[in-house]
Amino acid sequence: MPNDAGQAWRRTYIGVRSGAGPVVLVIDEDRGVELLCNPCRPGKTAACEHEWGYGGSGPGQLAFSLVCDLVGQDIAATVYRKLKTSLVATLPHEMWVLHEVDLWRAIYMIRPELRANWDEG
How buried is 32 (Cβ within 10 angstroms: 0-12 exposed, 13-18 middle, 19+ buried)? Predict the structure, then answer.
C-alpha cells in the first residue's frame, strides 16, 4: 500500500453521468483509461450499477468497486460500508474526480492499522 513519503500515486477515478447512466473511469499511468470493474459484493448475487451522492445500494457498490480496484475484495469487504457513508455519499451528483491518494486516506481513516502495517514493512 502506498504512503505519502515519495511513492507515486498512479490512479485517478472519474465519475460522470452520461445519457446511458453513471460511468466511472479509471485513468492509470501504465494502462491508460478503462471502465472501473464492477465485482459482486459479499452476499449479493449480482452487482448493481455504480452510483454516488447519496447512501444506497449503488453507492455501496461503487465503494466496494473502488477498494477492490486498489487492494482486492478481502479489504473491500471490511471497509466499503463506511467508505460509502464517509466518501461516496458526499461526491457531487454530476461529476467527480478522485485521486488514488484521496481513496487511500479514506481507507486509512476506516482501517488505520493498514497504514501502520505498511509503514512498518
Answer: exposed
Q: Using CA atoms, how far apart are residues 83 and 119, in angstroms rounded to an integer? A: 22
Could you read off the pLDDT of 14-23 as tens digits, one per residue?
999 988 889 9
**How many alpha carbons fall within 13 Å on the CB side of residue 20?**
4
Decide if 84 is inside a domain.
yes
Measured distance CA(58)–CA(36) in Å, rounded: 14
Number of structural domains in the chain: 1
64: containing domain: 11-120
Query: 80-101: per-residue pLDDT in tens?
Result: 999 999 999 999 999 999 999 9
What residues contact 38, with CB distance under 8 A and at least 6 apart? 47, 49, 50, 61, 65
Whole-model pTM?
A: 0.86
Query: Is 4 within the bounds of a domain?
Result: no
Helix intervals (H) in the chain: 57-71, 73-86, 100-110, 112-120
